Amino acid sequence: MRSKAEDSRRLAAFFQGEIARLATRPVRLMEVCGTHTVAIFKAGIRQLLPEAVELVSGPGCPVCVTPNGYLDTAVAYSRRGDVIIATFGDMLRVPGSSSSLAAEQARGADIRIVYSPLDSLAIAAAAPAKKVIFLAVGFETTAPTAAATVLAAEQAGLENFYVLSAHKLVPPALRALLTAGGARVDGFLLPGHVSAIIGEAPYRFLAEEFAVPGVIAGFEPLDVLQAVYLLVKQIAAGEATLANQYRRVVPPDGNPAARAVLDKVYEEADAAWRGIGVIPASGLAVRDAYRRFDAPAALPVEAEETRDHPGCRCGGVLRGEVRPAECPLFGKACTPERPVGSCMVSVEGTCAAWYKYGAGRWQA
Amino acid sequence: MCLAVPAKIIDRQDMMATVEVSGVTRRVSMMLLPDAKVGDYVLVHAGFAIQTVDEEEARRTLELLEELAGHEE
């Protein structure tokens, strides 16, 4: 009997061979999810692909697409003596217009890293004199966890818990990219864990309206290779459909229970994306019924005027139009230790991933 | 940020569950996956179970892949 490792090698070799055979013209495939970006580097997927197949990262890192204005607001809240900020760790070092949460923390602001949004409720319960603001950042995977936390806060009768929402929705961003056209995408590797919530239907427009194939993909090396194979196969045949490579986790209808929780607390709203601008109905705002948990409504705060760093090309990187090495700051003024733009901060940021795993290939 | 890890539910208490990942146990909320049962494999993200891992589908994918690769020999 063959071992699992042997099976994996055989399969990888099969996909690699088929991809090389089918990629008869240059194709650009966009992986939309930052977790895919890192998985592709870690598994060395690029080294397995023929030159004709280019993998480009998209706007799939929630921290990266959060614009400076949001960070400036979070910084303004953190400067209030009566506020505790609760946040996922990767938001800490993202530079805003003139400061970051890490810098404010060093100056004495009370900023706590949480693993789960629910952890902020324990912080709120233990500090009734303080107002605890959870930085609600993330795509459809994460947004239901923040919504559930608001419901849990209501149930627990907590009156000092708030969210500052910067949640974003993936399908409207893909539509905006295809409409703008600059990224010249021939196919999408679609985010598996976003899809675990939203299911297949929200992506159908890719093939139906834009004739661009998409494959919902998992995160194991073989998942990614198979997804690339399925895309290249469609492109070679001149077809465009939506395929689901990650069926073990993504049922066609996603997770309706999670969407019901999300829908109870949040409603669609226009949202600003770093590098892309305002995309209609691409974000989530707290519904009126839960307004008392909405930080901007319940605790208005004045933030500084927003400025973007003039040299940073994070926006072009997020649109898939600029490779990190094409930014004059990349690896020089901007490194993971001293990031200028958000794409260099998050471990799933395109620039950070190229810097860490690119092994100097970006210098070529 | 959308990282999620598979874990096995070993105990369920109302809307919370104890799950096991590689020998480590932790408590997760079941608010987003209310129908999952003890013994199910679930995907955990930010302290919440967000989806059931379909073992049957995982097995079928593997079989299909093996069949696919087998044709190439």
Chart the SSEs and their pairings.
The complex is a heterodimer of chains A (364) and B (73).
Chain A lengths: L3 H19 L4 E5 L2 H10 L1 H4 L4 E5 L4 H4 L2 H11 L4 E5 L13 H6 L4 E3 L5 H8 L4 E6 L6 H14 L4 E5 L4 H11 L6 E5 H7 L5 H7 L3 E4 L3 H16 L5 E3 L11 H10 E8 L3 E10 L8 H4 L15 H5 L31 H8 L7
Parallel strand pairs in A: 1-2, 1-7, 3-4, 3-5, 5-6, 7-8, 8-9
Antiparallel strand pairs in A: 10-11
Helix pairs in contact in A: 1-12, 2-16, 8-13
Chain B lengths: L4 E9 L2 E6 L2 E6 L11 E5 L2 E5 L2 H16 L3
Antiparallel strand pairs in B: 1-2, 1-4, 2-3, 4-5
Largest sheet of chain B: 5 strands, antiparallel
Label the overall shape of chain A. globular
Order of helices and strands of chain A: HEHHEHHEHEHEHEHEHHEHEHEEHHH
CATH class of the domain at 63-168 and 254-296 in chain A: Alpha Beta
The CATH topology of the domain at 63-168 and 254-296 in chain A: Rossmann fold
- Indicate the percent of residues in helices of chain A: 25-40%
SS class of chain A: alpha/beta
How are the strands of the biggest sheet of chain A laid out side by side?
A: 2-1-7-8-9
* Sequence stretches where pLDDT stays below 50 over 5 or more residues of chain B: none
CATH architecture designation of chain B: Roll
The rounded Rg of chain B comes to: 15 Å
Overall mean pLDDT of chain B: 87
The amount of beta strand of chain A, in percent, is: 15-25%
Beta percentage of chain B is 35-45%
Number of folding domains of chain B?
A: 1
Proper CATH architecture of the domain at 63-168 and 254-296 in chain A:
3-Layer(aba) Sandwich
The geometry of chain B reads as elongated
Largest interface: A-B, 47 and 29 residues
Low-confidence regions of chain A: none
CATH H-level superfamily title of the domain at 63-168 and 254-296 in chain A: HypD, alpha/beta domain 2
Q: Might you state the CATH topology name of chain B?
A: SH3 type barrels
